[in-house]
Amino acid sequence: MTIHSLRKILIILVLSVSVFLGGYGLGREGYKADIKKFPKVTITRETPVDRQELNFSLFWRVWDTLTAKYFDKSELNPAAMVYGAIRGMVSAVGDPYTVFLEPNENKVVQEDLNGSFEGIGIQIGFKGTQLAVIAPLPDSPAEAAGVKAGDFIIGIKDEGKNIERGTVGISLPEAVQAIRGRAGTKVTLTLLREGETEPIVVEIARKELNVPTLIVTYVGEGGSLAHVKLLKFGGETEEEWQKTVREISRKEGVTAVILDVRNNPGGYLQGAVDVASEFLKTGLVVVSEERSDGTKNDFKVERIGLLLNTPLVVLVNGGSASASEILAGALRDARGVQLVGEKTFGKGTIQEPLQLDGGSGLHITIARWLTPSGFWVNGEGLTPDFVVEDDPETAEDEQLEKAIELLK
């Protein structure tokens, strides 16, 4: 794979997969194929010449038995059955971030990255095999309902969709589709939270969400510190980032930057490289390693940044995942930037999005990524130089206050 093609790699959040909950396939319970949902497919039993050694007889025996004996023939949708077979094949790999997306699911992912969608505003991923909240979006219905980064989602209920299910074995696309919905409708989540002995049940009304890439404010004495809250690495990140950097560089009295990637679930790999290049003169930003043969591709600083000598602190927490961890790890390894906050999420794999026939898509894990020092964050996360927990009982942002203290 060329460096050029790797530039287009998407690191899923949740599908970070972010996905911004939002989502994909219907929950397994309550699922009913809609013939309008699937494009027409041509069914053929001819095996490609290069696949002649594979035995598909069992597949076709099951297909024929369903066709012949299932009591309600109107429920048998060949296209839906083909998509189901493909989904099962991909899920058999056992990687929650390698997923097949039907056309409607694939469309949702693009909407999420563009920042406009209807939902409750949470980003999800997996902690081990358990569905978990990476982070609620700022000012979202999920945040207002008290959903927190790190919550495990163990149940999803939506009476309008006829869905009531647990999340054991759920795929990321299924979870997103079950939770996403039209503005004004409601979904109920059952959560497990560290430190709580009983499940937490929250009913959340969905709404239309427009998520910016970043928000900048000025804090500290005389507004001398630019607090840049980077919410995601999406399609519009580069343009918004460049505009913000020009503003900071021209603003009188700004002496330092606090780069805040708390609750940022990731997104495009190239976005992390672009932002890191603003603060690094030369060198590595991230290394991708193809696990099959150990081939490595180095992503280096690509341009002359405007903030190369600007003092910097990075804020992180358990909702900082994927591209956010790439950025934080690069800045610490290559420039010695201090990290403040809580241990990051720990997602260290890279997914490439492929567009398939009929609008469907395949997100496939193609590599793992390493920080410049060679550290693999997967399942471990980055431990901050200054571990500071934010006290939800106070109005003060203790992590931000620590960053301000360090930059005085």
UniProtKB/TrEMBL annotation:
Pfam families in the cross-refs: PDZ_6, Peptidase_S41
Coiled-coil boundaries: none
Protein name: Carboxyl-terminal protease
Family statement: Belongs to the peptidase S41A family.
Gene Ontology cellular-component terms listed: outer membrane-bounded periplasmic space
CDD domains: cpPDZ_CPP-like, Peptidase_S41_CPP
Gene3D superfamilies: 2-enoyl-CoA Hydratase, Chain A, domain 1, 2.30.42.10, 3.30.750.44
Highest rank taxon of the organism: Bacteria
GO molecular function: endopeptidase activity; serine-type peptidase activity
Keywords, comma-separated and alphabetical: Hydrolase, Protease, Serine protease
Every PDZ domain range: 106-180
Stored PANTHER family: CARBOXY-TERMINAL PROCESSING PROTEASE CTPA (PTHR32060:SF30), TAIL-SPECIFIC PROTEASE (PTHR32060)
GO biological process, one term: proteolysis
NCBIfam families: prc
